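Hey Z.,

So I finally got round to the zinc ion thing we talked about over coffee. Here's the setup:
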Amino acid sequence: MASYLYRCGACGPWEVHRPIGTAEPVSTCPACGAPGRRWYTPPLLNRTPAAEASARLREEASGDAPAVTTAVPPAARRPVARDPRWSALPRP
Ligand SMILES: [Zn+2]
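And the result:
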């Protein structure tokens, strides 16, 4: 059995379990009865944490269209830590 995702425009996605290769391109929404199209997703990415899924998609896209750096990025400003007790210290 495999899990197939379908998406209804009004109710959102739902999952259908069927034998591999038997998924229909359109299924009936269990909530409202409207037809919902099959939602093709990368394997297991719908259950992967968002940050990891985003990293995987960026990695996959970099093979075809790598991001090219054309200039040195500006130096990041580091915030200066201010401790109120510093004002009580003796000045040189
Ligand atoms: Zn629906």
